[in-house]
Amino acid sequence: MSEANERPLRCLVTGAGGYVGGRLVPELLDAGHEVRCLVRTPEKLRDHPWAGRVATVRGDVTDAEQVRPAMQDVDVAYYLVHALGSGAGFEATDRHAAQVFGAEARRAGVRRIVYLGGLTPQGVPEEELSPHLRSRSEVGRILLASGVPTAVLRAAVVIGSGSASFEMLRYLTERLPAMVTPTWVRTPLQPIAVRDVLRYLVGCARLPAEVNRSFDVGGPDVLSYLDMMQRYAEATGLPRRVIVPVPVLTPRLSSHWVGLVTPVPAQIARPLAESLRHEVVCRENDIAEYVPDPPDGRLGFDRALRLALQRIQDAEVATRWSSASVPGAPSDPLPTDPDWAGGSLYTDRRARRVDASPKQLWRVIEGIGGDTGWYSFPLAWAVRGRLDRLLGGVGLRRGRRDPHRLRVGDSLDFWRVEEVEPGRLLRLRAEMRLPGLAWLELRVAHDRQGRTVYAQRAVFHPHGLAGHAYWWSVAPFHGPVFGSMVRNIARAAELSPPGAAPAPGAGGPLPARRGASHR
To answer: Model confidence over 166-195: pLDDT tens digits?
Structure first.
């Protein structure tokens, strides 16, 4: 290998705040390259764990004056932006942006452009393609004609948590045990795991200078959207879905149907639905000549699906929405993914200022459960425990190992201690019988004046339609149960002498005092 091929490359990444770009940056850094990000709002990158390792340039790809300084001293420029969901005129916007990007890359002497586009159907005239696919195809041609060696990777459905296509699949399958669907659910397509997409993108940085072409990229499986929904149901333990395709649902109606059932915005769902009208299967696998498959091969759909669902299936989903979440793999969610990504998640958040020290509050938190109780409606908790036992669950009989101290892995009534940060955080994972996964977080926090605050968060990830129905059936009781729990825990901390542990039975309603009320 030549010295030029061994040295780290200077890479410019556009779209670093997006689904693929946000996952590509750490892959390039891990490969030893230097990374610069061109973004309209650099502040949006602050939540990424890699933010401190990259340079950022504020700018818009449609503005040559802003793109020009970002291109200086760049070896490889990644074009990962498009105007999907931008409304009327998005094709003209995409066209202009690609022209600016290619011209400025040529002016700056960039050695290579890498673009991730869409896989187009074979034998279909371009005018019959969806506007989304047509625009992405045109952008590829513009970059290939820019005078800078360009690699255009053309992919169909990308499988990974946060991908719009995958999120559509997730929500439709989880929320509808039976559905009437558009006929495009039977159209063959070739999905690809996000890990393989990133591997190709990183590998293309070192393509020979004479390579200036498009590559079809896909996984080893050719499936329909219907096949993928049934496999998703199987992987998540849901019953096989009853799916009836009908020809009367046009792409426009399809997008409204998807918007009604899922939180994926209609302006995104519509171009995705339109793109599925035609068969999108790879016609070649020439990319393997330059970026060989790993020893265990490309990821098939089932394995990619398991990786996308791994955080949930391993009961670690709570860390996805925690401020301490640091994704460990390309398939993991990112803190900057859109709110509708990552599957349904219901939360009940409450907080209350406490006239006590953090240590006093923590002693109450760590002493919860068992003989102490749960600080709200003992009868309601007892009934829930008995109901759980009737359903074959663990109920409330397990109590706790130690009356004053908790450690990770301890059983606590029908909870399991998942995380303990002494003096700061207790996270419990529910082991009761539920149509989903549930957590309860109890936290010692502070307000801006440095005063002690008790923060409480209940999190529920529903499993199928039954999970959604369960959440909404118990939601009316959250105010009385969780609300009084917050008040009583705060009051217990305020009444607790320094150094004292909660007394057994303290979890019941506390005697009222002036200025406080308890249900």
So the answer is: 888 888 888 888 877 777 788 899 999 999
Collapse the DSSP code of 417 into the 3-class scheme (helix H, G, I; strand E, B; otherwise coil) and give the result: strand
Neighbouring CB atoms inside 10 A of 31's CB total: 15
**Euclidean distance between CA atoms 364 and 404, whole angstroms:** 9
The H or E element that residue 490 is part of is helix 484-495
CA–CA separation, 366 vs 502, rounded Å?
9
Q: Tell me the H-state helices in 31-147.
A: 64-71, 90-108, 131-144
Three-state DSSP state, 380: helix
List the chain residues with pLDDT less than 50.
1-3, 86, 312-328, 331, 335, 506-519
Surface-to-core class of residue 507, CB atoms within 10 Å of its CB (0-12 exposed, 13-18 middle, 19+ buried):
buried
- In eight-state DSSP terms, residue 481 is I
Which structure tokens are listed for 3? 């010295």
Query: For residues 137 and 135, what is the distance between their CA atoms, to the nearest angstrom?
Result: 5
Burial of 136 (0-12, 13-18, 19+ CB in 10 A): buried
CA-to-CA dists, residue 83 to 8, 80, 131, 487, angstroms: 31, 11, 11, 48
- Element (DSSP H or E) covering residue 436: strand 436-446
Helix, strand or coil, per DSSP, at residue 79: strand
Residue among 45, 27, 14, 118 nearest 330 (CA): 27
Q: Which residue has the tokens 């302006």?
A: 267
> What is the model's pTM?
0.69
